[in-house]
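Hi all, posting the design record for the shared folder.

TITLE: backbone redesign
STEP: 1 of 1
STRUCTURE INPUT:
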């Protein structure tokens, strides 16, 4: 495996609440002001071998990951604000946390974006690339990546989509093969959204790509095929943070005990820019599809019709400016048990969206880079742990259960590092 030597560029598409919270946090850790809370790659251990061996190193001491000191940040955004201004506008971090890293953030200025309001209705931008075709724009993104690498003397780079959720697009013939995709870029076909241009550009440059939003982006046959051909790891979609993260913990618990589900009503209020974008029905539809998919896959109503046939599942997001980034999510879960007796579970999660998402961006950047050095390519299903709508090979159901995803994540690390996978069989006591 190629060593994690030299510097790693982390380019985010979008320099909004999530990206700036991520960058400010990494710099704050580097300057000794905070701990990387929420990041598995920085804080979690991994058990190796039999329990009797007592080996449980930190993941970062076991897997050769880039050091935080070796990360160099860049971004694209249609809004020209530098990362400090963007972080202040996002209102996630307090001034007392921004001030000690203000110089660092002010130096991160977004490159012009490939952007069209048609795909994200609520954003108006002035920091834009121009070109006659979408292919032109994508070639400019490729050049940005190359220039960023050479300007900063980087060894390699990764790209993470932390930009707004685009409108819902269904995969069509334009996304079926690389040739059709490239022709569609050349004739400015509407089915090619800006997010796809970044994904294409990154893959063409041999740079891993992770998609933190629910839009189609890299999740098309054409781009997955391209990633395979070019030997590039890709992953997505949609960071699994607040409500859906808890859903993928609770639903497996109900199923593990064979308790029935009559309905699950989820509603949210949030007031950040993401909430404003999701207030547009076309962007919300993309998010809704992503949030709705998890329960059916976990509960398997076709296998357990007595428990899960026809349960109601509703997800609402309400834009409510006073809340800013501090989302409030309510879940009302109607379950039933022995002799059909009904019960209810209520969850009220007062979370902070970007505080939950920032460590996921860090882990995805580091693990995508690790995957690339380990020779992995195409869809990285072992990174499903981080996503609401994990990408899966054609014809396969994605895995949504957080704990199966965690086992897969850790077993993949063990496998890549030549350690035995852990099955929890505990055979040592029987032999
Ligand atoms: N925070 C979470 O918990 C969470 C969880 C899952 C997914 N997400 C997704 O992450 C994304 C970012 O969230 P956020 O809160 O930072 O939003 P944000 O609105 O604060 O930032 C998004 C930024 O992306 C920019 N942008 C839009 N289109 C672009 C393009 N084509 N090229 C470059 N930049 C572009 C916008 O101008 C904006 O500055 C959203 O899609 C959101 O749905 C967030």
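Okay, here is what came back for every position:
SEQUENCE:
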């Amino acid at each position: 495996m190629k060593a994690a030597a030299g510097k790693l560029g982390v380019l985010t598409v979008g320099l909004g609440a999530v990206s700036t919270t991520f960058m400010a946090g990494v710099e704050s850790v580097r300057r000794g002001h905070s701990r990387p809370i929420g990041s598995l790659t920085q804080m979690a251990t991994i058990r190796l071998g039999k329990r009797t061996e007592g080996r449980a190193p930190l993941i970062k001491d076991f897997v050769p990951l880039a050091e935080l000191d070796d990360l160099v940040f860049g971004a694209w955004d249609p809004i020209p604000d530098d990362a400090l201004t963007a972080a202040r506008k996002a209102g996630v971090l307090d001034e007392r946390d921004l001030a000690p890293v203000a110089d660092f953030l002010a130096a991160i200025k977004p490159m012009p974006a490939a952007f069209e309001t048609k795909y994200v209705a609520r954003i108006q931008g002035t920091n834009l690339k121009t070109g006659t075709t979408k292919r032109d724009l994508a070639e400019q993104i490729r050049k940005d990546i190359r220039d960023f690498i050479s300007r900063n003397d980087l060894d390699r780079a990764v790209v993470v989509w932390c930009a707004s959720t685009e409108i819902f697009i269904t995969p069509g013939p334009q996304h079926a093969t690389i040739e059709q995709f490239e022709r569609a870029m050349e004739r400015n076909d509407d089915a090619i959204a800006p997010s796809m241009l970044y994904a294409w550009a990154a893959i063409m440059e041999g740079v891993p790509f992770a998609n933190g939003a629910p839009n189609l982006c890299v999740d098309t046959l054409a781009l997955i095929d391209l990633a395979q051909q070019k030997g590039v790891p890709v992953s997505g979609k949609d960071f699994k943070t607040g409500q859906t993260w808890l859903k993928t913990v609770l639903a497996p618990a109900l199923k593990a005990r064979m308790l029935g589900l009559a309905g699950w009503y989820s509603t949210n209020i949030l007031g950040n820019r993401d909430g404003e974008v999701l207030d547009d029905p076309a962007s919300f539809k993309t998010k809704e599809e992503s949030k709705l998919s998890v329960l059916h896959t976990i509960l398997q109503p076709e296998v357990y019709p007595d428990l899960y046939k026809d349960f109601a599942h509703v997800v609402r997001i309400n834009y409510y400016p006073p809340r800013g980034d501090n989302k409030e999510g309510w879940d009302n879960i109607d379950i039933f048990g022995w002799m059909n007796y009904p019960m209810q579970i209520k969850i009220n999660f007062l979370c902070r969206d970007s505080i939950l998402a920032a460590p996921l961006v860090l882990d995805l950047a580091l693990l995508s880079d690790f995957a690339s050095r380990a020779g992995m390519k195409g869809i990285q299903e072992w990174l499903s742990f981080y996503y609401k709508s994990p990408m899966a090979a054609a014809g396969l159901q994605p895995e949504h259960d957080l704990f199966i995803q965690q086992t897969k994540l850790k077993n993949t690390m063990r496998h890549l590092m030549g350690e035995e996978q852990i099955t929890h069989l505990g055979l040592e006591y029987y032999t």
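COMMENT: The mean pLDDT is 94.
Let me know if anyone wants the other runs.
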